[in-house]
Specification:
2 domains, MetI-like fold, 0% strand
Length: 477
């Protein structure tokens, strides 16, 4: 059998290879676009800079399958069919790139902003604008690469776009094994294989870039850099941002608008929202608090200058493990226990617990970053004054960590609210989240109904994004 025939066969190993090719394509595309855009946004002033960053954050709050639905509508409107197997693979690449590219932009932006004004001024004295820009991109590359790598690895366990475009990736195969074939052992083995592949692929880069990420996270606060003015950047950067937003967001969004031109299904959409909003908030907030509590325990027990690299490496490894592996493992554990554990393994809490564990590395990195700024003299003063460690942590450390803890709860809640794989596998019967209700009805409902549900979700996400941006993000832009 030729490689091309095997690649598009029904073999699970071939499905893993297909998913890896999609992930690698997403990684390369996102870094190629995100690294220069994020670096330029951090050091140069141009019109609409804050607005473009805010709009670019929208895909991070929306499940990938919503963009896939919009893209499929655009393809239908253009009379483009995905009969070719290669095109069926390129469609998920486009959808996942809409999620990974903003992450790359923000990672490069924050990595460059973390440099002190003195460092950037020294670069500017040493060479031309082009040389400075290249050096700053090189400094931002480790964090940008790791962040984008995590986003690319997360695509391995996302079955949404594959289900819509007919692309049989590893995540779709696991979903079929569990929900269609009801073969628990097969789904468990497939999840284990996928988890091992994700770790093997990611581990060399995590070990290589981990120390550099540790240095960036544990750096002390420094003088903020000044935004520079460049005629070419001021002229072309807004145009590049507009083109990028139209390419990544415009086409799917227009695809969602097309069906509702024939009529909104607002009654059913609001009914679904009311039915699922309590579950959605419970899953999101419980995941946020559980993930943050895990981070507090890890940082307080193991944090230290010498252990920071180990903590960061372990956090990154937890993040690259596909969510399907954790969900199937929890199901297996729950089935082996007595009925006295049903209060946990048959409840909504287990969904929040699984999501909190999966996204806990985000909280670990945020809390570790804040905790590293605690001065050793604070502990010395507490010992000299005879203050107990319990009182010291409660009155001094806890208020100091409060901003990072609040940000951790917020970010994990936002990430968990758009997760469908874990919710699909673990939620009790009838306890759907709003994104999951869209995912489950999209195959049988009318196009106008599905589009109305998607636009309602995007609208709510945009409102949350505006609040999030004004409260937290705008201060660092």
């Amino acid at each position: 059998m030729e490689f091309a025939d095997w690649l598009f066969s029904g073999d699970f190993n071939a499905a893993i290879v297909r998913s890896l090719l999609v992930a690698i394509s997403v990684l390369l595309f996102a870094i190629a676009i995100g690294l220069p855009m994020g670096t330029a946004t951090a050091i140069y002033a141009f019109r609409g800079r804050r607005l473009f960053l805010a709009l670019l954050a929208l895909p991070l709050m929306v499940p990938s399958f919503l963009w896939a639905i919009g893209l499929s509508q655009i393809l239908d409107l253009a009379h483009i069919t995905l009969d070719n197997k290669v095109l069926r693979g390129l469609a998920p690449v486009y959808v996942f790139a809409a999620f990974a590219t903003p992450l790359a932009v923000f990672a490069a932006f924050l990595a460059t902003k973390s440099l002190s004004g003195t460092q950037i001024d020294a670069y500017r004295l040493a060479g031309s604008d082009g040389w400075v820009f290249a050096r700053l991109m090189k400094r931002a590359l480790p964090i940008t690469f790791l962040t984008t790598l995590l986003a690319a690895i997360m695509t391995l366990s996302d079955p949404g776009p594959g289900q819509i475009f007919g692309f049989s990736g590893a995540a779709s195969e696991i979903l079929v094994s569990f929900s269609a074939l009801y073969d628990f052992d097969l789904a468990r083995r497939q999840s284990l294989i996928l988890a091992l592949v994700a770790i093997v692929v990611s581990l060399p880069f995590i070990v290589w870039y981990g120390p550099r990420l540790s240095s960036a996270l544990l750096a002390k606060e420094t003088t903020a850099s000044r935004l520079a003015h460049n005629k070419k950047v001021r002229r072309f950067a807004p145009m590049v941002y507009i083109l990028m937003l139209l390419f990544l967001l415009g086409m799917p969004f227009l695809g969602l608008i097309k069906p509702v031109l024939h009529g909104f299904a607002l009654d059913y959409a609001f009914h679904e929202l009311i039915r699922t909003v309590a579950n959605t908030l419970f899953y999101a907030l419980s995941a946020g608090f559980i993930g943050t509590l895990i981070a507090i325990g890890v940082v307080m027990l193991f944090a230290g200058k010498k252990r920071a690299i180990l903590i960061i490496t372990l956090a990154l490894l937890i993040m690259v493990v596909p969510s399907s592996f954790l969900a199937v493992s929890i199901i297996q554990l729950g089935s082996s226990l007595s009925a006295s554990w049903d209060w946990l393994f048959r409840s909504r809490l287990i969904v929040g617990l699984a999501l909190g564990i999966h996204f806990s590395p985000v909280a670990i990195l945020l809390v570790l970053k804040r905790y590293s700024a605690v001065s050793d003299s604070w502990f010395d003063a507490a010992r000299i004054s005879g203050v107990s460690m319990i009182v010291f942590y409660w009155r001094i450390i806890a208020p100091f960590l409060a901003p990072a803890l609040a940000l951790s709860v917020l970010i994990i809640s936002l990430l968990a609210s758009s997760e469908i794989g874990t919710v699909l596998l673990l939620r009790p019967p009838g306890e759907d989240s709003f994104p999951l209700s869209i995912f489950t009805v999209m195959a049988n409902a009318s196009e106008s109904l599905v589009s109305t549900l998607c636009l309602l979700y995007i609208g709510l996400s945009a409102i949350l994004l505006i609040l999030f941006w004004h409260v937290l993000v705008r201060k660092s832009a």
